[in-house]
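Checked the freezer inventory, then went back to the computational side. Two predictions to log before the end of the day. The first one is the construct we discussed on Monday; recording sequence and tokens without edits.
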Amino acid sequence: MLIRHPPLFGLSLIPIVITVVLLVLLALASAWMVGELIADDLGGELRTFAQALIFVLALLLGYFFYLPVARVLLAPFSEALSRRAHTINSGGMNYQSPLGWARAMWEGLKLVMFQATIVLAALVLGLIFPPVGAPFGIAMAIFTCGLDFFDVPLSARGLPFRRKLGVIWRNKSLAIGFGIAAYLSLLIPVVNLLSLPAGVIGATLLADAIEGASQKTRAQ
């Protein structure tokens, strides 16, 4: 769907370009700060090595925190992409509850705080019970990936946070399956940049299917 519809691809390029620029700027700023902290008498080679090391580490940290940061900062673009995908998929119908940019970013921030709580609980469990730490951590990573993408079309519909969690819980098998696919795609460098728009579109189509099935059930 992303390839077949140029407007979707155009909307997808915006968050991808912004994300890459932000990550590179963050890495460059980190390297510059380290260079300023190293005294001149320690030599230029040490400064260059330290700056290069910090640059790479900053990019790695940006890679690991890419999805939650993008969910907050790029929330308006993600929801715009979801709206356009929903309009195409539904034959011209749009969401009934459009949200402003500030509300979209606030919804993204609430999700990230919820995920941070889950991740912290996984870390504590891993420290207390190391054998179950790694499997539980992977399970939580898959769960949070599903949450990240599903949250976008549900937020664009105007659902409050508790109702969004309810929708995901009632369709947890679909959410987990989608989360596995999203998690695996995020592990591939470069491809993970396309995972954000592709995941948003996929979650939108799946949310539309869930909503259609729910309406059909109520009609019966």
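The second is the one RB wanted added to the comparison set:
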Amino acid sequence: MQITSEQFDTIKHAFPVQRGNVSIDNLQLLNALLYVAEHGCKWRGLPKEFGNWHTVYTRMMRWNKAGVLSNVFMELQRQQILNLEINVLSVDSTIIKVHPDGCGARKKWQASYRSL
């Protein structure tokens, strides 16, 4: 799942203008995001051909907060370049033992305070 240069030219108006010394262009970053979405890998598992994983992650987070990512993916689907469909949803949780005070258990000082 990669976007070609010709496909990118039709949607590049949805991206912010790159300023300054940028090591990864918007097309390369979009392809890196699509790679992570398709393969479900960790950020550190991103192949070196996409650049530094931390750079990709940082820019993705900035774009997400600014609403750029939703505009980009809406444009990709509107122009039928990419059709995304969620077939499987997985939720992972971690079990952490909570201290009794965190569960609402009675505290020693509450029992002595109420008797006063």
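For RB: The two ends are 70 Å apart (CA to CA). The helical segments are 5-11, 26-39, 53-66, 68-78, 108-114. Let me know if you want it refolded.
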